[in-house]
Design goal:
Elements (H helix, E strand, L loop, with lengths): L1 H19 L1 H16 L4 E5 L5 H6 L9 E4 L16 H9 L3 H6 L9 E5 L6 H13 L2 E6 L17 H4 L2 E4 L7 E3 L8 E3 L1 H22 L18 H16 L2
Parallel strand pairs: 1-2, 1-3, 3-4, 4-5
Antiparallel strand pairs: 6-7
Helix pairs in contact: 1-8, 2-8
């Protein structure tokens, strides 16, 4: 079965992340923990399928307050494919320079915040705009994507830099540039990408590390609980506590 071939690719990718990215994950987690301990934010951003790790973080069962999703709907994974908010518009918008700066103007940003950006290639303008704007504010930038595969690939941005060159810390997903890994007979393009799996692997290994650092600092975590477990009569109360803390921090 070709499906088993994809599973082997997936296992290999996770193993590569484990073996090669542990130090980068620790460095990124330390920066993020400092922001959350200061009652500031780790802002998270991505386009297309790279919004999926953003949505995976918070609000999400097992996530905790401190991660703030920045999702621009026309750039999200939930396009209409054709018609309004179609794929053609999405591709245009992620490549147009200046759009990312306008997105960032809509948020209350602070030098103590962290910007965590997900991009497989790191070459598209909107991600680079967001990173440059964050750096201008004084924020640390963390980038997650196929770092080594795209290290020498030309940026589409007028700065000449790609996302991974701008970031203070990069976490490599260890995914090949083409992303999809299964060849199909009589077809040019492969199917079955790996980058989303790799993004999610990086998300939770990093967030777990952030949690460990915060607990060592004595910081209380406001965790988003599962509210679907029979017999857990306090789950909704804990959920409301997390929501209340999120609301309080938005006013900071």
């Amino acid at each position: 079965m070709r499906a088993l071939e994809w599973i082997e690719h997936a296992k290999t990718t996770i193993e590569k992340i484990q073996k090669s990215q542990s130090q980068n994950i620790k460095e990124a987690a330390s920066i993020m923990a400092n922001s959350i301990a200061a009652e500031r934010w780790v802002h998270t951003f991505g386009c297309g399928h790279a919004t999926l790790p953003v949505e995976e973080m918070y609000p999400r069962i097992g996530g905790f307050v401190g991660f703030h999703p920045v999702i621009e709907l026309p750039l999200s994974f939930f396009t209409h494919i054709i018609g309004d908010m179609g794929i053609n518009q999405f591709v245009f918008l992620e490549r147009i320079e200046g759009y990312g700066q306008q997105i960032m103007k809509s948020y209350n940003l602070h030098p103590d915040d962290t910007m965590w950006i997900f991009s497989h290639s790191g070459i598209n303008n909107v991600n680079i705009d967001v990173a440059l704007y964050a750096k201008k504010v004084g924020m640390k930038v963390i980038a997650t994507g196929s770092v080594e595969e795209f290290r020498n690939k030309k940026s589409r941005h007028s700065s000449g830099k790609n996302l991974f060159e701008i970031a203070d810390v990069t976490i490599d997903t260890c995914v090949p540039a083409q992303d999809a890994v299964i060849e199909i007979e009589n077809h040019i393009d492969r199917i079955a990408p790996l980058s989303t799996l790799a993004f999610i692997t990086v998300v939770w290994t990093t967030i777990i590390t952030v949690a460990e650092i915060l607990v060592e600092k004595g910081v209380k975590l406001f965790i988003h609980p599962s509210h679907n477990i029979p017999g857990d009569n306090n789950a909704m109360q804990r959920l409301q506590s997390a929501i209340n803390e999120y609301r309080r921090r938005l006013k900071v």
